[in-house]
## 1
Amino acid sequence: MAVDGALAGRTFPAPAPYAVSDERVAEFAAATGSRYDGPGTPAPTTFPIVVAFKAMDALLEDPTVGIALHRVVHGEQRFRYSRPVVAGDVLTAMLTVDSLRQIAGSDIIGTSTEIVDASGAHVVTATMTLVHRGES
Amino acid sequence: MTPGEALPPQEYAVTRADLVRYAGASGDRNPIHWSDRVATSVGLPGVIAHGMFTMALAARALDEWAGAPGRVVELGCKFTKPVVVPDDDTGTTVRVAGTVKSVEDGLATVALEVTCEGEKVLGVPKAVLRVG
């Protein structure tokens, strides 16, 4: 099944704000071997992907979009930070599909996810390109 | 950090167990990172590391070079070649090298080179760090 051609421009909010816990940050740091000094100190650099994935899941699981998870490969990723994430943050993620194009039978889906804190201040933008591999 | 400085390369072992742990910690449950059957069905050579796991290792090297976490203001790359992780106890090794390109207004731009088995796995990986 091909990806919905009208996808570009659509937005996908994460279903709920994400409360960053010390335990989740510590678990992520342990899984990546990253240094984490505990509450009040910066989470690992790529930790915001956990929050971005909540919005990404809204895209992947929308039955009108037509994405099959096992056909998805990550093409490109970029983070731009206003500040590091810390435990105690309550983060809201909103994904926008910026572009959709087809190359060699695959759909190339360009997205950007804005992540803001409880006061609405920008924390990080995660720009992600997904490659949805076509049936061979 | 000074312009032109080559930062000491970091090497990280990656096994299937690491991928399972990362899948749990990150919430990325794509089966191409744990099932050879599914990975080969979509044309991959076998189970591959999460691109984001490899990127996390690059970020880990940046923390090491910066001397502390939380200094990165920008990090980006393309995932150009999959990191294939064999189903054995040794796994594979990801190597992260970096060169300081410029230092301006308290921000250092670092060009990374991330390789596995001698081949680049990330395309144009680049970071900007707060220094000083």
## 2
Amino acid sequence: MAEKEWEPKIVAFCCNWCSYGGADTAGMGRFQQPSSLRIIRVMCSGRIDPMHVFNAFLEGADAVLVTGCHLGDCHYVNGNYKAEVRYQFLEEMVKQLGLEPERLQLNWISASEGEKFANFVRDVTAKIKELGPSPLKPEGVN
Amino acid sequence: MVEVGDRLLGYATDPNVRSKGASGGLVTAVLAAALEKGLVEGVVILKRIDEYEAVPVITDDVQEVLSSGGSMHAVPVNLAKYVVGKKVAMPGKPCDVRGVIEQAKRNSVDLSNTYIVGLNCGGSMHPVLTKEMLIKMYEIDPEDVVGEEIEKGKLIFKTKSGEEKSISIDKLEEEGYGRRESCRYCDVKIPVSADLACGNWGVIGELAGNATFCEVMNEKGKLLLDTAIEAGYVEVRPADEKSISIREKVNSAMLKLGDEWKEKVFDEIPDKDRLKYYIDQFADCIDCGACKEVCPVCSCGPDSKCTMFHSLADNYKMSMYHMVRLLHLSDSCIGCGQCADVCPVDIPVTTIFRRFANPAQKNRNYMPGMDLKRPPFLEVMLK
């Protein structure tokens, strides 16, 4: 049997009001996207604790995407600004840890931007396929 | 009456206190006066056990405060966590002071009733390494030592038999002894965030060795010093230009040396080896939690993210405990070195934390524990 191509595991945190809607739109618009994505819906990107991101990496995610409403469009006024501040610390930490910076990405996607969501996922997946499995992946997890 | 911003030379009026204190006993007298006059209910002091060991206690006995004078370079405890919620005065090295300020920013200390007398600090030594150094470098039995002193870059130990032996600190540090690693690259030597900033730098001429240079940093410092002067515990006089410039010179020389150490300690690890380095270092961890327990800026309390989401059953490459702590400390770490001191398996925890904190703090042009006006980051950046 031919060896199956390695498919990365990507965890995306999507906010309920924009980027989760964006993922929905991508599906409704039939934009093709890889099956590597696991979406975790949160009510707001401001809810995403850096701890969730670390946990995803430690559990074996090859990349973590943090997504939310466009700045200024937050359903809860300033939740995505909070996410951005946290993300800056996270980004620096990932860099210092020696993980490839591409493994953690931030993107603002609105509910109508289905194509953007699909493209984003496709690009990240392609990039991660190049990089290979995450060095933080625990043994026994593919 | 002194004013905020005044730079003074002062000493204790009581000759016993003056001779016992490291430089004029000003700090001891100020703390004693604050207690005597009811400004505070207690004073945090280090109760001496021997040359290498002391326990921090909060005392309400003026005599005990007066007898606690004198510096101990080989007892690197951080006093920040002892002031939490109490009406106390405390002396403190710059890192003690910065710890308290960081706690206050995170609302776990109310500083309106806490008075901090900062002490200049060029570094402290690890007690275990000091004993080892005494045997190897000084060839003295650690039990025979009755006193130590730092003078002109030399570390001097006095023995019971009255002998004195001195070796230059540079030489000791080449051998891996001397100051703790975190002290070598420390970048705050004068505690400007305290209420009073005291030290012997800039005390020259006939006063050298028996007076303290003291800068009044804020209203609380003014109150503290005024109380002591009114009570007749201390005498002060304005410092002249020469004293001030010498103090500055000593400070900048120390900082320059610190920068050199910084480059030596934090040599860049190549990107691809870095993760392996951290994983290997933390692999020794036995999950004792001591580094969190002593951390002066950690303010989550016992139920914290780093402990609650960490399980010994996880088979992660790095534990959640370390991941969360690395992130929490990247903006608040003051580099006091407590965590590395207490680590039972000798992980260079402080150095690792600083590797994360150095760029994070530099990029934001932020030094934790230096002022109360700049709150933690989430708050600042949202404005």
